[in-house]
Structures are given as structure tokens and as C-alpha cells.
Amino acid sequence: MKLLNLIKIAMRSLQKNGMRSFLTMLGIIIGVGSVIALVAIGNGSSQSIQSNIQKLGTNMITIMPEASRDAGVRQGAGSATSLTLSDVGAIQEQVKWVSNVSPVASTQVQVISGNRNWRTSVYGTYPEYFHIRNLSLQAGRLFTVTDGQQLRKVCLVGATVAKELFGSASNVVGRNIRLNNTPFTIIGVLAEKGQSGFGQDQDDIVLAPFATIQSRMLGTTHTSQIYASATSEENVTAAVTAIEKLLRQRHNIMPGAEDDFSIRTMSEIKETLGSVTSALTLLLAAVASISLLVGGVGIMNIMLVSVTERTREIGIRLSVGAKARDILLQFLTESVFLSIIGGLIGVALGMGAAVLVSKMLNWQVVFSTSAVLVSFLFSSAIGVFFGWYPAQKAAKMDPIQALKFD
Amino acid sequence: MNKIIEVQDLRKTFHLDEIKVEALKGIGLEVTEGEFVAVMGTSGSGKSTFMNIAGCLDREFKGKYWLDGIDVTQLSEHQLADIRNKKIGFVFQSYNLLARTTAYENVELPLLYGNIKLSTKQHRETVMEKLADVGLADRYDRYPNQLSGGQQQRVAIARALVSNPAIILADEPTGNLDTRTSYEIMELLQQLNEQGKTILIVTHEQDIAAFTSRKVVFRDGRIVQQQRVDQPKNASRMLQEQLLQEAS
């Protein structure tokens, strides 16, 4: 039989049972729709996490001192004072995969301007820190090497700090504030970065030259952390290895002994988070696939009922010359049509639902072509798979018995 | 004249659990082109079993059967379906039209299953022509439940005619109809026969058999009587009389 006739026959009988066809499709619609929507939401959240990490700088390397020991009692991570400014210089000079290095001295301070005050973190850094952290200015200028050398009391404030102290982030350059009791002049305002992927307000900071903070605020000589950036994301591993080797040598650590520092990279965090979110997406897809499978069982159920109900029709078709294969193909075409049309509607609804979610909850959604394609193909395959048994049953009917059926 | 149906020593046994029922015990029958034959008999006489075999719906039998010169016993199920499509037109007692399907779509059904190369226009013309032959061209878009019993049977006849078969097999075509409508259907069959169609009908009513040119009587799986009808009754005339009678 011609394919066109087959499609014609199948379409006609689906139309004749419009409501039933729709209800049968509903299972597939919900199945495909939920796969599309959930995968889009999963991919969206994974991508927003990735881009947050990107904002932090994927080639960033953080070096922290290990825990200090006091008579065998170990303190928390970063409590040792083993990292020094000469380590920073050595890394800058000797590790070729590193483009920028900056020591970081940080502390919590109360910033005060007139009758307003705010508790925030102040970071003493080198100017290189801006490049490492991908920071930029909204107004004013950066501090320079000279500012540090002369221990000038200058600082940059984040947008949150500016708003808390002055009500707005504009016209704050040149104003004086106090960090605890030390007066500082604001020379610039950082561009807004918003929340980090970990829920931290990245605008709630004050930056000042490293030497100024170290000598005027902390009174220490070591550095609490070292930030560095690799020349590229690919060179992070090489840079880490080189830094580790260099610092072990400089700190006189014997082979086999533990490091007195630890190195963390953004790509590690990125990979961990990436595997977590992709596992989550997979889980969502699996749950949705089960509903797709249930939809398939629904198709089989309805097709079986339909075959029994239409026994006489099958008898009539056989008597006018339909071959067993024609009957098989007719019922198979019907179930495949149901699942394909259901699949198409499901794709549309799933996308609609995902867009709705992104509008209402302000979540990022990312449509994946492969999810659309796979769930669509899967639903068609379900049509064939679950349609096969009922169709086979129809095709095997004896025309004489079928014609007698009431 | 061509032999349309030729059967020799046709036997059929049903196995119901342990019991064997011999439905046909050696049937021999010939139907030549242009004949109008009535197969008669009480229920259980084997006439329905014979019709199923003649209609190529049942291939589990012993004996010889040629349909329009083709040895049916040698054919596969697939080929039998093709024979049913091209050589046989069925008319049933209960019309057997597809429900919720228009008259036009019912009539075109055999064309959809046959591998006949027809242009869309030829296809449409063929279907409409057959509907016109049975006087229902203006009701092509009606559904079976919008048609009377007689009209439904006409649609079924149009469907039987559409692939221009060698023979029309009608199983009690008037069984569900009142006298007047029965005459109408027989009038139509007589007209088709006059145009050269070979027709075999099953009936247990003598007055219906009287319209045919030959009666074949089945009893207990055997043909017990074959009788040529010398002066077949004219269904048109009977219909007129019936109408006059109803009017008075």
C-alpha cells in the first residue's frame, strides 16, 4: 500500500476519536514537556554557575598558608604565617606561567563617614590584584605602586560600601572616610559585580595598597594569602606545579614532608560544580524520562482497547483486501502519529514552561538541541515500541471471526 | 463462457475441542461469467462456510478451487488479500460499513488497499461513478448513521463494485431489510447482472432466490439440489406492485 494512503487512513481514524487521541497524547506531552523544561532549567543553572566562576577569573590561583602547629596542636587553615612578600616576588620572577601576583592582607573593619558607619572587609593588595580578579573601576583611579611605597592612606570602595556610607555610589571620589580610626581618602569606586555564585556580595569591600594596610592596620610582616593569575586557563596546572616546587624549595621542605601552604584554583571548583550540576541535570532528565515511559504505556493501553473495539473494522478492512501488513502498519502509524504529535506539542509546552519559569523565578534556562532531539526521537521510538504489540494483535486477526464480532 | 468459480470436492472440518464437525462434505460447483446464482439452505447447512471459502477469507480447506482461472489453494495469505481486493466484492447482511466514515470514504476503501495506479481525478471519478450507479451520488458525504438501511446496503454494493471485481458475493444482502427495500436491493443487483456482473448471493428466502437465474441448495454440507430458474422474477415489477399495494 502507498505510504500516503496509510497516513490518510491513520489520520482519519485518529480524527474520528479526537478526545481519546488527545488524552492518549497527554502522557507523551507531559513526558516530553517535562524532559525539555527540566533539562533547560538544569542547564541554565549550571551555566549561571559557570559564568559566575568565569567572572571570578578561571585562571586565578589562590595560595594559602597551611595550619600552624603549636606543640602538635594544629590551628585552622591559613593560620600559619609562612607566606612572605619575598615569596610573592619569587613567584613573579621565576614562574613563567604566572602573569600577575599579589599578596593579600585582609581584615574586618568598621568604616566611618560622618554619622554613618558600616562593617566590611578591607583588602590590602598590589595593583596587580585588579587584573587577577577582573575588577574594573566605575569612577576615580587605581592606586599605584608609589601609593604603596609611600604608605599613602588611599582606598577604593565597592558600590555597597559607597551606598551604605553616602547613600549613592556617585560623587564619592575624594571624600574621606575612616577605617577603624585611620583616615583614608577614597580615590576610586569599583564597578558593580553583584553577588557571586556563592551568594557573597562582591561589592561589599574596600581595597587599599598592601603596604598601607600591613603597616597601618595590621602591623604584620607576612601575607595572609597570595593571589596569582596564570597566563591562560590551560596554563593553570603548569603554574600550580611550578609554584608548589618553588615554595617547597624556598620554605626548605624535605621531600616527602607536607606542604606548609595550599594552592587552590578556580578550575578545580569549576570542575566540581560542573560535575554536581550535570549530575543534577541528569537526575532531572531521568525522572522526566520515566514519565515519558509511563506515557508510552498509556499509548499501549489505549491502542489495545482500540484494537479490540475496532475488531469489526479490522474484519471489514481485511475483507476488502487489506493485507495483514497493512493492518499492522495502520495501527503502528496511529501510535507513532500519536507519539510524534504528542512529542511536538510536548517540546512546545516544555519550552513554554521553561520560559515561564525563567520569567517568574528569574532563573536562567538554556535549551539544549540534543535534549529536544533526543526526547522527540525517544517519544517516536516509544510509539513504535508500545504500538507494536497492539498492532501485531490487530494484524493477526482472523477475518471471519473479526467480521462476526459485535 | 469463463468459469468464475470452479470448486471440486470441497471439504471443511471444524475441530471444536474433541468434536469434529464436517461442515462441507465434498462440494462441486461452477459459476460462469454473467450468472446470478442463489445459494440456499438452512443455518448449519454449510452455505456460510462455503461463502467464506469462496470469498477467500478461509484458506483452511481440502479440495480444488479456481477463482477466475486462478488456483486459490496455491496462494499465500498475502496474495489472497490481493484476490479479495481485485476479484471479489463483498456485500454483507449487516452492511459492514466503517462507522463515522462517509459514504465516499467507505466506497474508496478497496482502492486505498489496491496497488492501482490512479490519478487523484480518476480516483475521485471512479468512486463517484460507483456511488451514482447505486443512486447515492448526492449523499457521498453522509455518514452511515445518516443513511437508511437500504441506502447503507447500496453504499456497500458501491464499495463491492469499485475495484471492478470478477464476482460479487452477497451474504444475505436483504436479511436486515423490509420487503420493499429488499426488492430495491434485488432490483439493483438484477441491473448489475444485466450489465454483465457475476453475482452469488446467499439467502434462505425463496422469494429472494426467485430473482436469480439459478438456485443451489445446501443441506448438511452437501449440495442437494441445483435448479435453473427459467423465468426469474423481475424485481422492478415486484417493486411497483409493492408500492401500489402500500399506497392502497
What does this molecule look like?
The complex is a heterodimer of chains A (406) and B (248). Chain A is an alpha+beta fold and 406 residues long. Chain A has helices spanning 3-16, 18-56, 85-94, 129-132, 145-149, 159-166, 210-218, 236-250, 266-309, 311-319, 324-361, 369-395, 399-404, and strands at 60-65, 69-70, 73-74, 98-113, 116-125, 137-140, 154-157, 176-179, 182-190, 205-209, 225-230, 261-265. In chain A, strand 2 and strand 3 (73-74) form a beta hairpin. By secondary structure, chain B is an alpha/beta fold. Chain B has 2 domains: 3-87 and 166-247, P-loop containing nucleotide triphosphate hydrolases (Rossmann fold, 3-Layer(aba) Sandwich); 95-164, no CATH class. The chains are: A alpha+beta (406), B alpha/beta (248). Chain A binds chain B through residues 1-2, 5, 8-9, 12, 16, 312-313, 315-326, 399-400, 403, and chain B through 52, 55, 57-58, 77-78, 81-82, 84-86, 90, 92, 96-101, 105, 109-110, 112-115, 159, 163.
What does the secondary structure layout of this molecule look like, with pairings?
The complex is a heterodimer of chains A (406) and B (248).
Chain A: H1 3-16, H2 18-56, E1 60-65, E2 69-70, E3 73-74, H3 85-94, E4 98-113, E5 116-125, H4 129-132, E6 137-140, H5 145-149, E7 154-157, H6 159-166, E8 176-179, E9 182-190, E10 205-209, H7 210-218, E11 225-230, H8 236-250, E12 261-265, H9 266-309, H10 311-319, H11 324-361, H12 369-395, H13 399-404
Helix pairs in contact in A: 1-11, 2-9, 2-11, 2-12, 3-8, 9-11, 9-12, 11-12
Chain B: E1 3-16, E2 19-32, E3 36-40, H1 47-54, E4 62-67, E5 70-71, H2 77-86, E6 88-91, H3 103-113, H4 120-133, H5 149-161, E7 167-171, H6 179-194, E8 198-202, H7 206-209, E9 214-219, E10 222-228, H8 235-247
Parallel strand pairs in B: 3-8, 3-9, 6-7, 7-8
Antiparallel strand pairs in B: 1-2, 1-4, 4-5, 9-10
Helix pairs in contact in B: 3-4, 3-5, 4-5, 5-6, 6-8
What percent strand of chain B? 25-35%
Number of helices of chain A: 13
User: What is the succession of H and E elements of chain A?
Assistant: HHEEEHEEHEHEHEEEHEHEHHHHH
Described by strand count, sense and barrel closure, the largest sheet of chain A is: 6 strands, mixed, barrel
Helix fraction bin of chain A: 55-70%
* Coarse shape of chain B: globular
Determine and state the CATH class of the largest domain in chain B.
Alpha Beta
Fill in the CATH topology of the largest domain in chain B: Rossmann fold
The tally of helices of chain B reads: 8
**Which class best fits the helix and strand makeup of chain B?**
alpha/beta
Question: Low-confidence segments of chain A, ≥5 residues, pLDDT <50?
Answer: none
Instruction: Evaluate the radius of gyration of chain A.
Output: 34 Å
What is the mean predicted local confidence, pLDDT of chain B? 93
Between the first and last Cα atoms of chain B, what is the distance in angstroms? 46 Å
Q: Name the CATH superfamily classification of the largest domain in chain B.
A: P-loop containing nucleotide triphosphate hydrolases
Record field, number of beta strands of chain B: 10
